[in-house]
Amino acid sequence: MRPLRETWGETLAELGETNPDILVLDGDLATSTKADIFARRHPERFLEMGIAEQNMVGVAAGLATMGYIPWLSSFAVFLTHRALDQVRLVVAQPHANVKIGAGYGGLLTGLTGKTHQDVQDLAIMRAMPGMTVLAPGDEIECAAMTRWATEFDGPVYLRLTRDPAPVLFDVAYRFEPGRVHQLRDGSDVLLISTGPQTSRCLAAAVLLEATGVSAGVLHVPSIKPVDAHAIVAAVGRSSLVVSVEEHSVIGGLGGLIAEILTTHLPRHLVRIGLEDCWGESAPNDFLLEKHGLTAARVADRVRLELQDTPTRRKA
Q1: SS3 assignment, position 108
Q2: CA neighbours within 13 Å on the CB side: how many for 277?
Q3: Is the dihedral of CA 95, 99, 105, 110 positive or negative?
């Protein structure tokens, strides 16, 4: 069980052995994002850009026009907020072949506090035309996404969390953009999640099963593009759908699921995540508990929803 950031750094270093066009541009955070793994193996292709993310994005866009494959390395919040104008104008609009390695994504960033926590990034990047948005759930998926993104011609946003995540997939896993993964079947409620939060949803489903609630779990690693019809098929006859994300409930995974269901298959949707608030500096366990993201809190919320409207279990 390894941190996604470490897997990302190691995968890029491995790819660099056979692909001389890969470059890594870092915003003075290489030891945190683990871009330093690439730097040690390929120092001639590691560009330290300093605390100047806007300039870093512009340089990457220029390098892409020369045939290079530049990966950006910084905290997610600096790439999606501080450098947003540059990402929009010189990466997304011209469809530049720039890859965004967004480290420290989400709420659990090691006590960095609200200034360094990015819980709006999926909403921001999902709304940007032409941007592929990915959130791996474990190290195997992260490595597969990194390989795919490097080969793909176009901008990619890869959300990388700081801490280790339980393994969801085996070595046979192959990433396909848009594909969703049914990790557990259930008939009473469908839990839909992304990134490492999916592991906590699987644990919540086990807790629910112990109390007689049948919960399915759907993993959505590709936020954009996404297979809407596969999500509709996964919902099936479940009358309660619960999105769970380490992100604001506005515009992220919950917003995506709401858009799909209102268009194709109306269902009661409950969105669990940050309720239109900033993060804060606190231990991970505290933050997960506060925002209802632990397995126990997710299970409690599902039981409460089912209790409030018993007919929901009669799909």
Answers
A1: coil
A2: 11
A3: negative
CA 102 – CA 72 distance, rounded (Å): 8
pLDDT tens digits for range 87-122: 999 999 999 999 999 999 999 998 998 999 999 999
CA distances from 188 to 97, 157, 184, 234, 241 (A): 43, 34, 12, 12, 9
User: According to CATH, what is the number of the domain 181-304?
Assistant: 3.40.50.920
The ranges of the chain annotated as CATH 3.40.50.920 are 181-304
Per the prediction, the chain carries an average pLDDT of 95
Supply the CATH classification number for the domain 4-159: 3.40.50.970
Is residue 196 within 8 A of residue 165, CB to CB? The reply is: yes
CB contact set of 233 (below 8 Å; sequence gap of 6+): none
The strand pairing partners of 184, in sequence order, are 217
Residues of the chain with CATH 3.40.50.970: 4-159
Q: How far apart are CA 299 and CA 158, in angstroms?
A: 29
Cα distances from 53 to residues 16, 84, 151, 240, 293, in angstroms, run 23, 9, 24, 42, 31
3-state secondary structure (DSSP) of residue 20: coil
- 4-31 pLDDT tens trace: 999 999 999 999 999 999 999 999 999 9
Integer Cα distance of 44 and 274 in angstroms: 41
Whether omega for the bond prior to residue 177 falls within 30 degrees of 0, making it cis, is no
